[in-house]
Design a protein that fits this description.
Shape: globular
Largest sheet: 11 strands, parallel
Number of strands: 37
Structural class: mainly beta
Distance between the termini: 70 Å
């Protein structure tokens, strides 16, 4: 070992390959460009086509329509597509002439779709009639703080997640309609992969199977409010098969199915609920074992501020009343159950001693 190696700790002796990677990544970060739409580029796709990995495409407030602002592809680049003013003021209106985004070239979690509303999506080209809002296939993007509303597709009307290893975080999926009877997923179809849906509101969607979610994956659903969805066959809230359905800190309440399973229809596997609020009378398991609820689950009305009747709608205030057992100060796991906190009510009117509340945690 030469004198230089003797002086350098082993943890700091980087290989030439490692040094090259560090230099390349540092160069990407240093050269990242923010590309402004519409000030510099007329459409979102034009800005993407001018980008390299690490760039940000920044949308100004407004409504984006027409070619180049729908059926948007990332071209395999890990970009950030975001807005300067948030989803309420930044709308991609697909005008029922295409979907919002098609992400399918092995993009990683560094590819982010953030702070956008996608509305009126309707796929009109192959490869597949899925994902009126976003179709992600064999990719792992991060979709955060988005509103996907009033979209339609055969399956996964809001989101179609195919072999999905990314994250859907703090999104609203509402008023989306899936029409194909072979699968479903009015809000979301999650088919393969180990990604996560977390802290989302999935409400007022419709499909033959899985009005809210059609689930056949090894991923998790965490901190979500799944309410007011409709299945014209089975599984108003969720339709699941093949994989255990793991739910943590979720609300499943007020969904409807014309056949079986207002809240959940489970065809073959198990349902595992941890600190959830569930209307267990609407949970149906066809061939699998009975659902497993941990000691922190609750089986009483979550007290939404203004729930909408189940069906295809963007109405409803899915925040919680002060008295809700889903609020962290009242819940058995001392954490928020569902995606939204308090939105109505003043002073708690229920008895909040531990003994009084604990009696409500069992069926």
């Amino acid at each position: 070992m030469d004198m230089l190696a003797r002086r350098v700790p082993m943890c700091c002796q980087l290989s030439p390959c490692t040094i090259l990677v560090v230099i390349v990544l540092a160069g990407v970060a240093a050269n990242a460009t923010v590309r402004h739409v519409p000030e510099e580029y007329p459409t979102i796709q034009a800005a993407i086509d001018a980008s390299v990995t690490g760039d940000t495409v920044l949308l100004s407030p407004g409504v984006y329509r027409g070619p180049g602002n729908r059926d948007i592809e990332l071209r395999g680049l890990d970009l950030v597509i975001t807005s300067s003013a948030g989803a309420d003021q930044t709308v991609i209106d697909c005008e029922r002439e295409g979907r919002g985004f098609y992400i399918h070239e092995l993009e990683t979690p560094a590819a982010r779709i953030e702070g956008l509303t996608i509305s009126n999506g309707l796929p009109v080209f192959e490869p597949w009639n899925g994902g009126g809002g976003i179709l992600s296939g064999a990719s792992a993007p991060t979709i955060v703080n988005c509103r996907i509303v009033s979209c339609e597709a055969g399956v996964g009307a809001g989101l179609a997640l195919m072999v999905f290893d990314g994250v859907v975080d703090r999104c609203l999926l509402s008023g989306n309609n899936a029409t194909a009877s072979y699968n479903g997923g009015g809000g979301v179809e999650f088919l393969g992969g180990s990604g996560e849906i977390r802290d989302c509101v999935i409400a007022g969607n419709s499909a033959p199977k899985g009005g809210g979610i059609y689930f056949n994956a090894s991923g998790r659903i965490t901190g979500c409010t799944i309410a007011g969805n409709l299945a014209t066959e089975d599984g108003g809230g969720i339709w699941t098969v093949a994989w255990p359905l793991e739910l943590e800190r979720c609300i499943l309440w007020g969904n409807c199915a014309w056949d079986d399973g207002d809240e959940v229809f489970c065809r073959t596997e198990n349902i595992l609920c941890e600190c959830c609020a569930v209307d267990s009378t609407g949970v149906v398991t066809l061939m699998g074992p009975d659902p497993e609820y941990d000691e922190d689950c609750v089986f009483v009305d979550p007290l939404f501020c203004d729930p909408a009747p189940c069906g295809l709608t963007t109405d409803g205030d899915w925040r919680l009343d002060t008295n809700s057992l889903c609020l962290p100060e009242n819940s058995p796991c001392a954490e928020l159950i569902g995606a939204l906190g308090q939105g109505c009510g003043d002073t708690p009117a229920i008895e909040t001693t531990w003994g009084a509340i604990k009696a409500l945690y069992r069926e």
